[in-house]
């Protein structure tokens, strides 16, 4: 079982730390990536960390993950609420999928309460800030270990 994890980030997350810090905090996406790489090393996971504002790139990375990855951690951002295409791509992936949201989407506008990605996700982490990524990696490591078992 592959210990490679794709961490995929959707639109506007390239502005993390600059855009609405009262909602998303002051950490940048580079900070999140550095934290994920450090923890991945401790958990003996390899990661590929990507961000795109383009739906098709996220879909392409999910397709790529089908061939090499054991799990996907995804923060689809605004695509959460709109992208049946990302859901369809995730449905072709056999490993665990953990959905992450930095903010608590259930305390925000009602349109944010629906997630297409949740229909495929094995777990959802919302409202725990950027720490949600580390929690997702810990869960993925446990799931991959159980599969190996």
From TrEMBL:
Site location (Transition state stabilizer): 19
First-level EC class: lyase
Keyword flag Thylakoid: no
GO function terms (MF aspect): 3-dehydroquinate dehydratase activity
Keyword annotations from UniProtKB, A to Z: Amino-acid biosynthesis, Aromatic amino acid biosynthesis, Lyase
Record bears the keyword Amino-acid biosynthesis: yes
Catalytic reaction(s) noted: 3-dehydroquinate = 3-dehydroshikimate + H2O
Residues binding substrate: 75, 81, 88, 102-103, 112
Catalytic center residues: 24, 101
One Pfam family per UniProt: DHquinase_II
NCBIfam families tied to this protein: aroQ (TIGR01088), PRK05395.1-2 (NF003805), PRK05395.1-3 (NF003806), PRK05395.1-4 (NF003807)
HAMAP family tied to this protein: AroQ
Subunit comment: Homododecamer.
Biological role: Catalyzes a trans-dehydration via an enolate intermediate.
The protein's name: 3-dehydroquinate dehydratase
Organism: Alsobacter soli
Gene: aroQ
């Amino acid at each position: 079982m592959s210990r490679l994890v794709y961490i995929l980030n959707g639109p506007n997350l390239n502005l993390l730390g600059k855009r609405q810090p009262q909602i998303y905090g002051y950490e940048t996406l580079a900070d999140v990536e550095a934290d994920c790489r450090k923890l991945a090393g401790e958990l003996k996971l390899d990661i590929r960390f990507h961000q795109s504002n383009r739906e098709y790139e996220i879909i392409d990375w999910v397709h790529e993950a089908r061939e090499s990855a054991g799990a996907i951690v995804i923060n689809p951002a605004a695509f959460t609420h709109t992208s049946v295409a990302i859901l369809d791509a995730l449905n072709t992936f056999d490993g665990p999928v953990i959905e992450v949201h930095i903010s608590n989407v259930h305390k925000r506008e009602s349109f944010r309460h629906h997630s297409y990605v949740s229909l495929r996700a094995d777990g959802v982490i919302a409202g725990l800030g950027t720490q949600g990524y580390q929690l997702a990696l810990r869960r993925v490591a446990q799931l991959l270990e159980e599969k190996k078992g």
